[in-house]
Recover the amino acids of this structure.
DNA sequence: GCCCGAGACGTGATAACATAACACAAATTT
DNA sequence: AAATTTGTGTTATGTTATCACGTCTCGGGC
């Protein structure tokens, strides 16, 4: 199992958490949002994995770090992060993942490997999307789209073949 | 609120439940599957609505009809129906809906109206889909796709405008 | 006819996910 | 200073989903 799959490629993970947190810090300050200690720590927890974490997993880690130990603590922090585009909820897994492209306006699509549990976030062009086309022909107005695919990532396909 | 929105159009609902059940009956017999009383009743319950029902809603109705009253009763019937393409789970809602195009091999996409709770199932061309393209470029093998859009249906847009 | 295994259904119990309601503290507004 | 807003913590509860086990039924093999 690949410990560092982002887009299913190996990468240097050592700086990527710190960089993302610094960037989140900056963008929150710019937008007048409070990236408080719990929220920042929650983002770090998500960034430490390139897979989706359940709210209770996050909660356990927060509690271990001295924050509250009750579900609302985690859910509120996760709500903040998802609301402001710093994290996403993977509906299929009832779990959360740090956004791989924060700052950009994007309709994320996720590729979930059922073998190694890695989750990759792909950029999509909203205007070309299937759902947009359907919406256009039916007159439906989309406010939020969920695009998630489950399957096997390239790494796991290779592993299975050997 | 539109009581009969399928694809957000009015339609004659009187025969549509019975027809769908008869078709399911036929296709199960053909495939050697057992469309047992609980399973058939569960399908009817889903067909009676053009919106998604939670497993516990289904369970309550099953219990009222003399079937078991414990969660596995509903979940097993729903698992059977979803596994064999007679129903789908709407991940965003943690709820289930009868398939609008049973028999066809399809990658369903759903349009969920947050105003009237109607859910429309759209046919999609899997090969043209966004996710397929992403998968192709990344080497990811998709086994199941979730395509769900939340927003406002044409009927509710019109209603809001008046 | 009888045994056996697979599949379906029922039960009680429990796990996993999520929110409601309230108290308190700090920062901001009036 | 008082009121308001925002954030964090708590207890309690609600909602969704699965586990483990016993029973029944319907085949096929003997
Ligand atoms: Zn990384
Ligand atoms: Zn994998
Ligand atoms: Zn109908
Ligand atoms: Zn509507």
């Amino acid at each position: 199992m690949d410990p560092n799959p982002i887009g299913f490629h190996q990468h240097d993970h050592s700086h990527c958490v710190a960089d993302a947190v610094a960037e989140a810090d900056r963008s929150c300050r710019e937008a007048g949002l409070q990236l408080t200690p719990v929220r920042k720590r929650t983002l770090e927890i998500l960034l430490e994995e390139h897979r989706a974490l359940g709210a209770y997993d996050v909660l356990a880690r927060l509690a271990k770090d001295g924050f509250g130990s009750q579900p609302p603590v985690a859910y509120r922090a996760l709500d903040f992060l998802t609301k402001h585009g710093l994290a996403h909820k993977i509906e299929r897994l009832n779990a959360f993942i740090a956004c791989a492209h924060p700052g950009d306006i994007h309709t994320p699509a996720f590729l979930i490997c059922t073998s190694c549990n890695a989750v990759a976030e792909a950029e999509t062009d909203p205007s070309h999307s299937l759902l947009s086309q359907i919406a256009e022909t039916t007159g439906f107005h989309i406010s939020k789209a969920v695009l998630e695919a489950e399957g096997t990532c390239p790494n796991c396909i290779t592993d299975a073949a050997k």
